[in-house]
Amino acid sequence: QVHLAESGGGLVKPGGSLRLSCAASGFTFSDYYMGWMRQAPEKGLEWVSYISTTGSYTNYADSVMGRFTISRDNAKNSVFLQMDSLRADDTAVYYCARVMDIVLIPAAIDYWGRGTLVTVSS
Amino acid sequence: DIQMTQSPSSVSASVGDRVAITCRASQDIGSWVAWYQQKAGKAPVLLIYAASTLQSGVPSRFSGSGSGTDFILTISSLQPEDSATYYCQQAKRFPIAFGQGTRLEIK
Hints:
The structure holds 2 protein chains of 2 kinds.
Chain A: E1 3-7, E2 10-12, E3 18-25, E4 33-39, E5 45-51, E6 58-60, E7 68-73, E8 78-83, E9 92-102, E10 105-112, E11 116-120
Parallel strand pairs in A: 2-11
Antiparallel strand pairs in A: 1-3, 3-8, 4-5, 4-9, 5-6, 7-8, 9-10, 9-11
Chain B: E1 4-7, E2 10-13, E3 19-25, E4 33-38, E5 45-49, E6 53-54, E7 62-67, E8 70-75, E9 84-90, E10 97-98, E11 102-106
Parallel strand pairs in B: 2-11
Antiparallel strand pairs in B: 1-3, 3-8, 4-5, 4-9, 5-6, 7-8, 9-10, 9-11
């Protein structure tokens, strides 16, 4: 069955960097768009980024554009989120997500990881 | 950018009740809407995609309808385990946007 396991979260100072990893299993990883979502404490869901099946196409929320970089390694069934210039408002649980497509258009997130907490604080 | 506005922000209902949650898009998004359920401390779960298609394994008491700018998630006969926060999400164009959430409480 589909399993997504995030790692790499933790406490980091403002201006610092962190790299999140997500190990995927139970499906043909290279067939799916993947993504990252986040949820600040007691807040709603926020889309962060998507990456296409080959990694050729990426999209980002305005709030992270230029600071975060999504990437994937299809040989290792993994997706990553490099987070630089972190700010206090980046504090959130970060979820790895498998994206289902309809006629090659990313349509919904059909599987979510359990999430990893990133805290940005001095 | 497309904004998604849910209403109500919270609702309280009894077991067996019919509950409807509305999501309005700031522009026409066709049928590119998904609905999620999130229980406290857990990751979200996909309920509905393409506005009205039930995700595999989701109970049939959940249904979705609408197109264009107005969408509805309906729970036909509320069960105790439906206590959760529900989110809509537009998939028409980037940036992807979620609604602010609707908290459903069982009386």
